[in-house]
Amino acid sequence: MAAGMLRAVWSYRGFISGSVKREFQSRYRNSMLGAAWTVLSPLAMILVYTLIFSQVMKARLPGTDSQFAYSIYLCAGVLTWGLFSEITSRAQNVFLEHANLIKKLNFPRICLPVIVVVNALANFAIIFSLFLGFLLITGSFPGLALLALVPVLLIQVAFSIGLGTMLGVLNVFFRDVGQMFSILLQFWFWMTPVVYVASILPPRLQALLYLNPMTPLIAAYQDILVRSAMPQWETLWFPGVLAAVLCWFSLQLFRKRVGEIVDEL
Q1: Domain carrying residue 187
Q2: Could you tell me if residue 26 is inside a domain?
Q3: Which of 113, 148, 189, 225 could cross-link to 76 by cystine, CB 3.0-4.6 Å?
Q4: How large is the average pLDDT for residues 83-92?
């Protein structure tokens, strides 16, 4: 089944690339700043959190002595959380947003979540490239440790699209799913050590944080980008296994319900 879907996606690669290009162009059409908005939105968020938390966190970021340590810590968390949030939020609505396309055209519906991932990765690549430039300018570039980002990013994307596709299918049949997840995502952000360090919490709460699959993923990015160190690989088995399970389950759910999706739209 998975192999068949992959072949279908590859066969429609032109449709996917064209859709990504059209969406990118339409997003910034009639905008004076264009793609700069991809950078400005998370940058504003980072600046606000830096102003609010930098004085509190300055003495509580262990293992670093750089004056830019907290800003890098914050960027590592906010940018990668933004990727997770964009994929899951858009995937949960992808079938509803493209209802007219689904009804009018005959194409593999699995292409739609793929388009979501490619769009999100394109936006992420733009802003993350600028972040890497900042690391070079400030002398904080992590060196070879940066290669460890590849497996961490793969786990995160698999987890995000597995969860997002599952929610996307369920949202077609139960419209409350999307609303509930949007609220959950806001709580989820503050339950993940993105703007604070887990070590400032009591030990009991720290243990609870690691029931959150995004905690070890965000921590892995922060280890690489802040401390120029390899992530603690043993902590990534949980999000890795969960990502595999979610991808498998979402494909099974999609395969069983894809014929009914058109009727429900």
Answers
A1: 36-56+71-264
A2: no
A3: 225
A4: 95
